[in-house]
């Protein structure tokens, strides 16, 4: 229950010590009435069986108070994963409850930072993270709870101003923002999602706040009661990835101002300051995805209940939408991705999809996209090979299009990282080669995240061009990544081991200084064949994929090592039902 007298004495001990009891008593009685303490406590008692989002909805219903959000905004709320929502704070109580209701309709795990007074409302306790905005005391325990919530992949709502908006010559605006939320987001590597609330309090509130701000805070219950039958509009922006918040050349104060400018621009329907990502689509119905896979060609089954399917998706089916969702999710985790709600393009409709399906969990573990060259050659030019959007095929490269497959868009969803999932996808490729034994080449782009520091990217490119490069220039990137002569000389001196094995050790050691390792696919592809069986033709930047580096790789199937053939193609170590 709310005990205003105790809250006031705790917040303003000097006031109560400096004035006689009859004066402070009259002061408390006045604010109990303005605060509607008895009516609030009566409502809390009547609805004590409710908790969190349900209680917030009950309050909004009691006041017949509504919030409006458009469908696009609703789709911008991620259904899972850590995220920090930030918002302006025009009202005080009802905007907080509206955000709990809105975000909670998608994210039952939502938490909101609230002051000690709100924390006294028992039904809201499991939704609140306590923070003292009245006395502005630092609370280590509060910080610990916030970081724990983000570690648990939960959603938290923060009002950066820490108090209700005030009237200014330029309109009703937040007071100075505190930078705590920015530190939390960066430390937890959580995206920030801005929300703008269109609303205002009464002239009485703004008048009192100009006289003495702390007293105005005690009028917020009065403001709540005078908003019966009213509504607000909430604008939900797009997510700002935490990588886009790392601005070493800008001071924290200026970055805070940029975020505030971004939020207010969204409120006006304008483009924000920061680059954003759209929220992923909702997960597709598992039963529909499963049905679609069961109608596809099953290439094999692993010993731990994972099936390998080869599927065709001629339209945007639930299976393809789920593949697109998980692709984007997986690529974003390594600093890549399209930034769209799902990663699907026109090529998906005439390529095939190698899918690893977990029968127990009933979900996709990972997938490859497979383009069959003999079929793709029959299509109109603009619909043929995905790699033609990134690379130019030069004279003499035509042999790649005979009895070959273009591989790409491979992923294992984060939930299954650290398992044998990628290995199982290779069993799937092996099963495909067993099904189509005349396949001569595997080719496609292999990505290197732009999140790798420039030096790390250049070391990897130099190493793989040195040992697996193709000097003939048969395939060239449309946006080539070239090293300068000076850089070439520096890396020549660095990689002085004299052999692949020794230079590989040098590469690993230098990457470890950045706490990085060689990208898995680069390592796996390069170790797949005998000498000359793997070639990197060129490297280029993909601006539509978070500026990642694409290496164009070609694998000659006839030169795959015998040990790899036995493991993946002939099936001596393959999953039980993938054996020939």
Automatic annotation (TrEMBL):
Residues 83-200 form the Phospholipid/glycerol acyltransferase domain. GO terms for molecular function: acyltransferase activity. It holds the Pfam family Acyltransf_2. One of its GO terms (biological process) is lipid metabolic process. InterPro entries: ACT14924-like_Acyltransf_dom, Acyl_CoA_acyltransferase, Ornithine_N-alpha-AT, Plipid/glycerol_acylTrfase. Keywords: Acyltransferase, Lipid biosynthesis, Lipid metabolism, Transferase. Signal peptide: none annotated. SUPFAM superfamilies: Acyl-CoA N-acyltransferases (Nat) (SSF55729), Glycerol-3-phosphate (1)-acyltransferase (SSF69593). Pathway: Lipid metabolism. PANTHER family: GCN5-RELATED N-ACETYLTRANSFERASE, L-ORNITHINE N(ALPHA)-ACYLTRANSFERASE. This is PUTATIVE HEMOLYSIN. It comes from Wolinella succinogenes (strain ATCC 29543 / DSM 1740 / CCUG 13145 / JCM 31913 / LMG 7466 / NCTC 11488 / FDC 602W). The lineage of its organism: Bacteria, Pseudomonadati, Campylobacterota, Epsilonproteobacteria, Campylobacterales.
